[in-house]
Amino acid sequence: MTRILILGGGFAGTECCLQLESYFQNDSDVEIVLVSEDNFVLFTPMLPQVASGTIETRHIVTPIRTLIKKTKFYEDKIKTIDPQQKIVSLYGTHEKRGKRIHYDYLVVALG
Fold first, then answer.
1. Dihedral over Cα of 101, 104, 108, 109: its sign
2. Tell me, what's the pLDDT at 32?
3. 63-89, pLDDT tens digit by residue?
4. Among 3-7, 8-12, 38-42, which stretch is predicted with the lowest mean pLDDT?
5. Which site among 24, 38, 94, 106 is 20 to 30 Å from 72 CA-CA?
């Protein structure tokens, strides 16, 4: 199975994920994995309207899991990227050890 790993759940990472889901929708040999330290997408161009009180914060925040349907999602921080071994290490939380994710293709969409 081919694994495509996307790092970053902002505009670029989420859009990349959606495009890949669409492109590989009938291909069961491709696994798409998204890693983001947040479990939501924030529509930052509308932050001034939130600050001025013209719209509520809930109107510019969308949970990532509602956008991506066929992608495995990890909410975590990235510890290391090893391009030679094709492995990304995650920090993990106090409840679980950090995970190591092998990839065939890597998309870096951080920040």
1. negative
2. 98
3. 899 989 899 999 999 999 999 999 999
4. 38-42
5. 94
The domain limits of the chain are: 2-108
Picking from 90, 66, 62, the residue whose alpha carbon sits closest to that of residue 5 is 90
State the pLDDT confidence band at 43, using cuts at 50, 70 and 90.
confident
- Amino acid identity at 3: R
**Tokens at 47, concatenated:** 């932050």
- How does DSSP classify residue 86? T
CB 74 within 8 A of CB 90: yes
SS3 assignment for 31-92: EEEEEECCCEEECHHHHHHHHHCCCCHHHHEEEHHHHCCCCEEEECCEEEEECCCCEEEECC
Query: What's the DSSP call for residue 15?
Result: H
Q: Looking at the chain, list the stretches that DSSP marks H as alpha helix, in order from N- to C-terminal side.
A: 11-23, 47-52, 64-67
Q: How many CB atoms lie within 10 A of CB 20?
A: 20
For 70, what's the count of Cα atoms within 13 Å in the CB-facing half-sphere? 18
